[in-house]
Amino acid sequence: MPATLAQLLARPELGLRLLTPSAVGDLDAPLSWAHSSELPDPTPFLSPGQVLLITGTPDDVEAYVGRLVRHGIAGLGYGTEVVRSGTPEQLVEACTRLGLPLFEVPYRTPFIAVARFVADRLAADAYARNTWALRASRAISLAALRPDALGAVLAELARQIERPVALIGADGGLARVAPAGAVTGAAAAALIASAEPLLRSRRRAAGTAETEAGPFALQTLGAAGRLRGVLAVGSEGLDQAAQQVVTGVVALAGLALEQSRATDAARARLRTSVWRALLAGDRALAEAVAEPVLGSLPEAPVRVAVLGGTGIAAAADWLENHDAGFFARDGHDIVLLDADDATARELAGRFGLRGGVSAPAALTGLAAAVAQADVARARASAEHPVPAFDDVAAAGMLALLQTPDARAVAATALAPLVAADPALPSVLRTWLDADGVYDVAARRLGMHRHTLRARVADAERLLGRDLSGFAARADLYAALRAAG
Fold first, then answer.
1. From 431's CA, which of 87, 190, 217, 400 has a CA 20 to 30 Å away?
2. CA–CA dist 78, 52 (Å, integer)
C-alpha cells in the first residue's frame, strides 16, 4: 500500500523527527505525494493526503496552518539550517493546536529524498495492484470455463475483491449471491428495489444502493431493450484496480447470460408450436410436445390473456423464471393460459403492456377465447390496461358502441339534427329512453306532449326517415349512445 507518515518517519536514512505529539493527526493515513513550496498559500497546487515540505516561516503561522488542515494536508515537513536553525516554536504550537503533524527534516536530507520515498512506495503499490488485477482477472476467466459459468464467475469475483456480489435477474428477483448468505433480508430488499428502475428503463445503466450490508454499485447486464439482469457489487473501499476487475466481470457475466439466449429461443419456439397446436384443436400433439420440456398444460377452464407492447421480450424473460402457467409468443403478442387475470395484470404494470382477458374457456375453445381477449384489449386504457371480456359482456351490446369508429359514424348520422338544433339529440334520447311514450317523455322534458311530437317530426324530416318503427328507433338510439 502507499507510504504513510509513520513509515516515512521510521526511515533511519532520512533522519526525520516528529515535533508534534503522536496523537496529532493520523500518522497511518496513506500519502498521495510529497511536495515542496514556499508560497504563502500553496493549497491551490496541493491535493488532500499530500505532505508539504517548507524551509521558511510563514508570516501568519496560524492562518497558514489552518489553510493546510482545511485542505486535507497529511503532514508538514520543515527543513532546518536552510533559512534558520531549528523549527520555529510558533509553528510547532500552531500545528499541535490545529491537528497537523509536523516533522523536522535535517539539512543533510534533501527534500527530493522524502519525495522519492513516497513516489517509490506509490509506484510499488500501483505495480502490486496491477499485478493483483491481472491475477484476479485470470482466475475469473478460468472460472468462466466451469459448467456453471455465471455462478463460478460471481463467486470468484467475491473472493478476489473480498466484497459481496449479487445478481438480480431480469425478473427483478435476487437470483444469486456470493458468498452464500452475504445478502439477506432488508439488504436483499434494498438491492431489488434499487435494481427495479434500472430494469424498467430497458436501457444500459448504472446506479448505487445503500443497504445494511454496505453500499453497492449496480450495473445492468445485457443489451438495451433486452436486459438480462443487474449486477450488484459491494463498493465500499474499492480502488481503481478492483473496479477494473469488476468491469471485466460485467462483460463476462453479460456473455454468460447471453449464452443462455439460444436455449431461451429454442424454448420460445417450442412454446409457440404448442400454442398453435392448441389453437388448431390438436390437444394430444400439444401435450406430447410440451410435457418433456415445458411440463403439463393447465387444466381447463382457463382464461386466455393476450398482451402486447414494447416490453414483451422482458415480460417473456420474467415469465420464464416464474411459475405463472403456460405462455407463448404469438407474433408481437404474449399469450397466457391462466385460471385468472392476476399474472396478466402484473405483467402489464411491470412492463408497460396492454391487453385483454377472455372468459373461462376449454382447451378446445381457445380460438373463440382469443377473439374475446382481442375484444377486451380494444378497450384497454392507461387506467385499465388489461380489461376482462366478462366486464365487456356484462355492459351489454350497446357498450360495444364506445369505439372511435362508432363515434365517427354517429357524429355523421346526427349532424343534421345538431346543425338545426343542438338540443334536439338530447330530446330524442329522452323520448327513446321513455320507450317512445310521448306523455312520459314530455313530463321528463318539461314540455307539452304536442311540442314533443313536433320536435320528433322535425327530427324525422331532418334525418329523412320514419321513426315510428322499431328498427329506425333502434338505429337512432344506437347513434345517440355512441355519440355520448
1. 400
2. 9
**In the prediction, which pLDDT does 108 show?**
92
How many residues are there in the chain?
484
d(CA 202, CA 172): 12
Count of Cβ atoms closer than 10 Å to residue 239 Cβ = 13
Question: What is the C-alpha separation between 58 and 81, in angstroms, rounded?
Answer: 16
Tell me the C-alpha distance between 106 and 104, whole Å. 6
Helices marked H in 144-239 = 149-161, 185-201
CA distance 57 to 95: 13
Alpha-carbon Rg for the chain, nearest whole angstrom, is 39
Give the pLDDT score at 9.
92
* Total-model pTM: 0.47
Residue 309 and residue 351 in contact, taking contact as beta carbons nearer than 8 Å: yes
Q: Where does the pLDDT of residue 207 fall: very low under 50, low under 70, confident under 90, or very high at 90 and above?
A: confident
Residues 426 and 416: their CA atoms lie apart, in Å, by 14
As a whole number, mean pLDDT of residues 476-483 equals 79
User: What percent of the chain has a predicted confidence (pLDDT) above 90?
Assistant: 23
DSSP symbol at 183: S
Residue showing cell 369505439: 403
What is the Cα–Cα distance from 38 to 71, expressed in whole angstroms?
Answer: 17
Q: How far, in Å, are 109, 167, 201, 346, 360 from residue 323 at the CA level? A: 74, 20, 24, 13, 20
Q: What burial letters (b/e) apply to 97-111, b meaning 16+ CB within 10 Å?
A: ebebbbbbbeeebeb
As a three-state string, the secondary structure of 87-120 is CCHHHHHHHHHHCCCEEEECCCCCHHHHHHHHHH
Q: In this predicted structure, what is the pLDDT of residue 6?
A: 92
CB atoms within 10 A of CB 240: 10
